[in-house]
Design goal:
The chain is mostly helical. The chain folds into 2 domains: about 60 residues, no CATH class; about 80 residues, no CATH class. About 50% of the residues lie in helices and about 0% in strands. It is built from 9 helices and no strands. The chain is rod-shaped and about 80 Å long.
Length: about 170
């Protein structure tokens, strides 16, 4: 597997280390002649080098080990597990945003003990909207028809199941 930005990594390795061109070419996944062209200033002109040590792709000990032995092969550093990014709600098109109150009505009628906060997170709406629909004071209450948020693609069946499991777990 090549490192991120192989040419920039090669520039940094050529400038900052005593590694041989074959070692750099193998690590970066480049041809030996391309590495020589970078070193001669014929390729990657003006390119800023990328530090593979700070990027977590190599260790200083590995660079030192391979600098002492020109026949040694650079071994990639163990990549730390990537932290999962917080799941964000996806963009909801305007057409579906108009359907949110219908989904809230369905959730409130089907699962009356489902907390407002869970309803809000499932269909990406606000607590005042959920409260007004629950109380029957919503401005367009007469126009609302209960529709499943899964069928409207406002949430997945898994998300709905998870919300319902949390409801059952919090019940006395």
């Amino acid at each position: 597997m090549k490192p991120l930005m192989p040419r920039a990594t090669a520039v940094w390795l050529i400038d900052k280390t005593m590694l041989t061109f074959p070692q750099i070419a193998e690590f970066c996944g480049l041809h030996l002649l391309e590495v020589q062209a970078i070193a001669d200033g014929e390729a990657a002109i003006g390119m800023k080098g990328m530090d593979p040590v700070s990027a977590g792709q190599l260790t200083l000990q590995e660079i030192e080990r391979c600098s002492k032995d020109p026949t040694a092969h650079l071994q990639r550093a163990e990549e730390p597990p990537v932290a999962k990014a917080k799941a964000r709600k996806k963009y909801t098109p305007l057409v579906l945003r108009r359907e949110r109150p219908h989904a809230v009505l369905w959730l409130v009628r089907t699962y009356p003990d489902l907390p407002d906060a869970r309803v809000c997170s499932l269909v990406s709406t606000t607590k005042p909207t959920v409260k007004s629909i629950r109380e029957g004071t919503y401005a367009r209450m007469g126009e609302l028809v209960p529709k499943s948020p899964v069928q409207l693609a406002l949430c997945s069946q898994e998300e709905l199941d998870t919300a319902l499991e949390g409801r059952l777990a919090s019940a006395p």
